[in-house]
Amino acid sequence: MQIEILWDILEKKGAITMYKYLILTVFAGIFGSCNNNDNSDDVLIPSNSSNVIGAKYSESKNNFSNTYSAFIESLNANDAISIVVEVDHTANASSVGSVLSPTKIVFFGNPALGTPLMQKNQLAGLDLPQKVLFIQNSSNKVYAFYNSVQYLESRYNLEGVATLGKISTALENLTKSATSSEIKNATNLGVAFEEGIITKESTQDFDTTYNSLLSSITSNENLKVIAELDHQENAATVALELRPTKIIIFGNPNLGTPLMQDKQSIGLDLPQKMLVWEAEDGTVNISYNNPSFLAKKHEIQGSEDVLNQITTALENLSDSEAGL
What we know:
CATH topology of the largest domain: TATA-Binding Protein
Largest sheet: 6 strands, antiparallel
Strand order of the largest sheet: 2-3-4-5-1-6
Oligomer: single chain
Distance between the termini: 66 Å
CATH class of the largest domain: Alpha Beta
Radius of gyration: 20 Å
CATH superfamily of the largest domain: TT1751-like domain
Number of domains: 2
Order of helices and strands: HHEHEHEHEEHHEEHEHEHEEHH
CATH architecture of the largest domain: 2-Layer Sandwich
């Protein structure tokens, strides 16, 4: 009992010692050797070896269904927020004959808060709209994940954008309300400027590039368009200006599911996204997340074949529609 009290005091003061780390490591090794399920708790323990880079998360005190429903209800109750799309990764996995523990993500946005980020750096549209991932792991523990404002700020050089604080507060309050629990931070919340982003300049105009990309995705029987979002149009609804910027969210459960079976947290960055944007100098670009960066972010290991397939597919798609 005295050890537990001392431990609690150390945690509250932020002074977790090396002894605790060693104890956790030993126990993880013991129990990990008895459990080969890749959806185990190791992805969620806040240690340097298992954090989701840039993420904040909360362990819910409620069951999966109630946690997710409470979050959706809060979004619907806020007139400034619109739900873009909900994606049930578990149902998508089932549609291709695979099994995945409960995993859902919801995309939602508030143009008044998100547009200023893209006015500073259009590439921020790749991580907009906002999204929160809900999972239930093999131990039946429920978690909510979202990308921190620090992650967005560092990745897109958004220092000084006034709405960042409001976004941070909104994400924290919404998640805390749904989970009835406090928010925890990954050890590393920031990344390098534009880290993990691949951008290709198109030889075609904006509309041609976007429509060609959309047509290629919809005509591919292995891919499914989940949502389209016109950031410029949404900016106009709140009397803000933005250069042409559109995003396509699309996926292939045959490739995405194995990654989530490895680490459910990568569902935060799935389905795939491609951003088409027109820069200030008139050049048109296609941008997307490098799969190797996402693997690093979520500590994916042993899925090289799947990652290579995704990498090749995204390269071919972007090259073709950029006219390269």
